[in-house]
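INTERNAL AUDIT FORM
Audit reference: QA-55
Scope: verify that the stored structure record matches its stored sequence.
Auditor: D.O.
Record contents follow.
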Amino acid sequence: MTPVQGIDIDRVSAWLQANIPGAVAPFTFDLIAGGRSNLTFRVTGADGARFVLRRPPLGHVLATAHDMAREHRIIAAVGTTTVPVPPALGVCTDDAVNGAPFYVMAFVDGVVLDSPEKAALLTPEHRVAASHHLIDVLADLHAVDVDAVGLGDLAKREGYIERQVKRWSTQWEQSKTRELPAIDEVAKRLRDRLPVQQGVSIAHGDFRFGNCLVDTEQGRIAAVLDWELCTLGDPLADVGYLGVYWYDGEAANLRTNDPTPGGGFVPYADLLERYATRTGRDLSDIDYYVAFGCWRLAVISEGVYARYLHGAMGNQEGIEIESFKTGTEGLAERALAAVRRLS
């Protein structure tokens, strides 16, 4: 059997047979997604049954940054609600099995809309329907009673934005490769105008089309993926972050890993109106959260750029390195424009 990097085939196969009902060996393991995030494998059993296995990236250092048991706990809890997630099937915390913890969930059919070209997979009517369902799913997630589903102790409930601004300001100081006054000005404005948190919700942390499976035949979200940044916090952080990835016609706001530049999706303002109607939340200061989302993503992009410069991520094409540099600058300017609209 051909070796698969990141999978001890014999030990993982034995674990699957012992712990996942209906799992029949031998299995094939195909990498679906890799990179700096968690690795995702499609597992196919001898009978054709498919599962999905998630494990931390190879060579990871901080286990807390890629906590498989935590992620499994979240999707298992959310799976008891109407929010569509892949059913959680089992978790292995014994490093002896595969060198790192992993968890297994059911395979869900669907397409990840992670480029403008992918918009073509949806009819014009389904682009509108998918837009509406995406924001409805987010509203439903934010309506989940965290105590009722057993996630009440997942994280601190209050002061989410204040902690996040402090955390990412520190991250900027540690990773910046040059001075960017826009980053510093946005940070100051965010600190000076901390919003009142409107309740406590499950905050996904990276909610967008690129982290969902879409049923392109129905124009509906089949499953929300990538829960590794999930915590308890301010629900409007997710709403503002979605605005970072929603194309509004401005060339500077185009993101290559999002389908909305492909056209036909509803305007961001319509999403906000639909969310406000469904949840009753006040979105009059949503520009604060859009600014925060752009600013946080700018700091993350700078961290990637810094690691490239320091040789921590191997040989890369120069154009890719430059894209992180310019991406940081563009996001910083978008954040500044958004936070200035609050004045």
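Auditor finding: record pair retrieved intact. The CA atoms of residues 305 and 324 lie 5 Å apart.
Action required: none
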